[in-house]
Amino acid sequence: MYQAIPYRTCIPTVTRDLPITGGGIHETNVIKMVSENAVIIIGTRGCCLCHVVKRLLQGLGVNPPVYEVDQDRETAVASQLSDTAAETVQFPAVFVGGKLLGGLERVMASHISGELVPILKDAGALWL
Prior knowledge:
Helix content is about 45%, strand content about 15%. The protein is built from five helices and five strands; from the N terminus they run E-H-E-H-E-H-E-E-H-H. It has helices spanning about 25-35, 50-60, 75-85, 105-115, 115-125, and strands at about 10, 40-45, 65-70, 95, 100. The protein is globular. InterPro entries: GlrX-like_pln_2 (IPR011905), Glutaredoxin (IPR002109), Thioredoxin-like_sf (IPR036249). Keywords: Cytoplasm, Redox-active center.
């Protein structure tokens, strides 16, 4: 009988004992990941909306990493990302080309209106 090999499709938080406030390693890694990835989804652990956004982007040919934030660090990560994005960040947050695209509603609206594919192409996440 065959057995499935488990794999991770998310980026887990670094460690549970590192502080998120005051320039800790954890928040630096989040900002660094946003700037290094063409597309990244940041959401809370076990968020079903993150899964929906990821499946939508995978359907377009993009395989974005998902960064899961623990619930106890959600406020700190959101405020740190809000400082860099110059607007309020709510989870799930989709960053394209280092800039905040928005949450599920904004991504779906962009997809329905036909704006999402050009945005992904400009960010280098889609080559079609």
